[in-house]
Amino acid sequence: MAIEVIRDWRGLSASQRGAAVAVGAFDGVHRGHQAVIASAREAARRLGVPLGVVSFYPHPRRLFQPDAAPFALMTPDQMARALEDLGVDRLYLLPFEREMASLSDEAFAREVLSEGLGIVHAAVGFDFTFGKGRSGSPDLLTQYGEKLGFSVSLTPRKDDADGLKLSSSAVREALKAGDMDRATAILGRPFAIEGKVIHGDKRGRTIGIPTANIAMPDYMRPAYGVYATRTRLPDGRVFGGVANLGIRPMYEIQDPLLEVWLFDFNESLYDLTVETELVAFLRPELKFDGLDALKVQIDEDTRRAKEVLAA
After folding, report:
1. pLDDT tens digits for 231-247?
2. Are 60 and 23 in contact (CB under 8 A)?
3. Which residues lie below 8 Å from residue 14, measured CB to CB, with a gap of 6+?
4. Are the CB atoms for 66 and 152 separated by under 8 Å?
5. Is the dihedral of CA 65, 95, 41, 105 positive or negative?
6. Distance, CA of 298 to CA of 304 (rounded, Å)
7. C-alpha distances in angstroms, 69 versus 43, 107, 221?
8. Helices and strands (H and E) in the chain: how many
9. Which of 91, 311, 76 is nearest to 217 (CA)?
10. pTM of the predicted model, to two decimals?
11. Distance of alpha carbon 305 from the chain centroid
């Protein structure tokens, strides 16, 4: 059964309430997040209730730091699919606007979690904060839960084999460094960019390499350069490819763009929404003296991308 996405905490029906939930931003749904969700899953099984996740859109950071550089690791649709793969029944994707931001920690626990969602259990991470000024803590949530009728479980910090914290910040750091192996290890899957295929300048067609151009509105910017990729089409087909992510120094475009060349593919993708996994970072962006030098490099990039994807 498909995951149910609920976008408010007010006015819910009885059938939309009463879940055991994991609560947090969950940007990336990485392995640390998955541990919190696993705790909620155990409570849902024990209590015989649906498994839910409570998250927020837009990300709270976007409200408090409106001028911050793009930082998102996934879209709401990607989050829903990742959670569905984990067996989550409901995603409460709550609007994080001034009204919610102004709630005290007690008001959030009472009005949103208890009265609004009617939760029976909340699973949170060790560093979870909530309420105006981030004044709430897991201990406070436990105290509120005792009064309001829901239990609370706390998931300890999760580290990798090197003792480094599994976090969204760690994913962003790995992506900025072009360390796709580390990003994939933290996420539990390759980082992927989803977007609509837009019309570009069609320069690729002039050299026999038609690319699908995908804008990156609020995604964080991984290292600019060339990647081996896998792209999933709306009909479920997946194609390997090679992509340039960045501003193309040779042409100096203003906004970063993901340009993907799909291997063994010659259909139109304009206006379709596709999802492209950045499997491996092959090299930084380069500025070429001319098209001949660019073609030689593309041949080498293609060879390496196919080698990586075959492995």
Report:
1. 999 999 999 999 999 98
2. no
3. none
4. no
5. positive
6. 10
7. 37, 31, 9
8. 10, 12
9. 76
10. 0.93
11. 24
